[in-house]
Structures are given as structure tokens and as C-alpha cells.
Amino acid sequence: MGELDSLSKEISYALRHAPWEYELEMDEEGWVPMAQLLDGLHREAKWVDIERADVEEMIAQSAKKRFEIKDERIRAFYGHSFPMKIQKEEKEPPAVLYHGTARRFVASIMENGLLPQQRQYVHLSQDLETAEIVGKRHDGKPCILVIDAKRAWEDGVKFYLGNEKVWLADVVLGKYIKQM
């Protein structure tokens, strides 16, 4: 049960306290696509082999009913330490935003920009600390990218307030990105 207990704690942290560290897009009721959660977990070596069946087993064996799975989504029942609603309201961003990423992705990002990949949006951090935490999920020594959000906004790039630490964008072209 040790491994499942550890998995429960990891998923609790992701869904209840720091969804931005796992780049999760949570709806107003706290639901997250299961594929996004698994993708976020797979970025750590310890959880690279975790599958939906493992999460279902963890929920079934847990004495504390903390999670619920419905269709292709999962949520924590309670204990959230952040505002639940991730608003997708277009909003003017701060002048500068950050994005933590693995060094191996930097050349592609500089050439092609930041793209949403398997997500609906590109996730950007409002502060350096959050960008570094997110980046470390991809690389022990991540590269922090500085986004000229003011210029991008003025040029018509749409930004959305995710929560108090995360901003979302559809795409951020390389011309707005510098390496720190």
C-alpha cells in the first residue's frame, strides 16, 4: 500500500494545492482531464509508468475517499487551497511572464514559439519561483524563458487569467521570448 499511498499524496497535491505545477486545466467544478493528470505525473521518473488503472486502484483501496473519476475526468472532493475556478476570461497580462521548460525544448520553442501541445493553452507563470517549479518537473536544471507579454498583448496575442499564479495564452511566438 506504500506506493499507492504515495500516489494518493502526489495526486492530492496536484489536484488540491498546485495544479499549475502539473500544468493542469481545471474547470469550475474542479475536474481535470485524466490524460492531463497522467501526463503531468509522467514527467517525474517515479510516476512514468502510472496508468489510469493504477489511479483507479488507489482510489478503490483508499480508506479516505478523496477523489472521483467520471468518464475521462478526475477531481478531488475537498481540501483545495486555491480558488477553484480557472477563468478563461481574456485579460491584459502583466508586462512580463515566465515559462519554465527543459533545456532540450528551448531551440524548438525559440523557432516555433510556445505551443499548447496536448493542452488547450500555453501555461505561463506570473513569477519566477512558479516558473522554476514547473520547469523542474521537466528538467533538473530548467531554462526559464521571459515572455514580453506587454508587447505580445499590444500585437494582438490573447492572454487569459488562469489563477493567481498562472496565465494562459493560445500561442506565444518566439519573437516575444528571451532566455533568462
What integer is the average pLDDT?
89
- Pick out the low-confidence regions: none
Q: Helices and strands: which structural class?
A: alpha+beta
Number of strands: 9
Strand content: 15-25%
Largest sheet properties: 3 strands, antiparallel
Q: Radius of gyration from the CA trace?
A: 17 Å
Terminal Cα separation, in Å?
43 Å
Walkthrough of the structure:
Helix content is 32%, strand content 20%. The longest helix is centred in the N-terminal third of the chain and has 16 residues, at 2-17. The chain has 180 residues and is of the alpha+beta class. It has six helices and nine strands; from the N terminus they run H-E-H-H-E-E-E-H-E-H-E-H-E-E-E. The protein has helices spanning 2-17, 34-42, 52-61, 106-112, 128-136, 149-154; strands spanning 32-33, 67-70, 73-76, 96-101, 122-125, 143-148, 159-161, 166-169, 177-179.
Write the layout of secondary structure elements.
Blueprint: H1 2-17, E1 32-33, H2 34-42, H3 52-61, E2 67-70, E3 73-76, E4 96-101, H4 106-112, E5 122-125, H5 128-136, E6 143-148, H6 149-154, E7 159-161, E8 166-169, E9 177-179
Antiparallel strand pairs: 1-3, 2-3, 4-6, 5-8, 6-9, 7-8
Helix pairs in contact: 1-3
In short:
The protein is built from 6 helices and 9 strands, in the order αβααβββαβαβαβββ. It has 180 residues and is an alpha+beta fold.
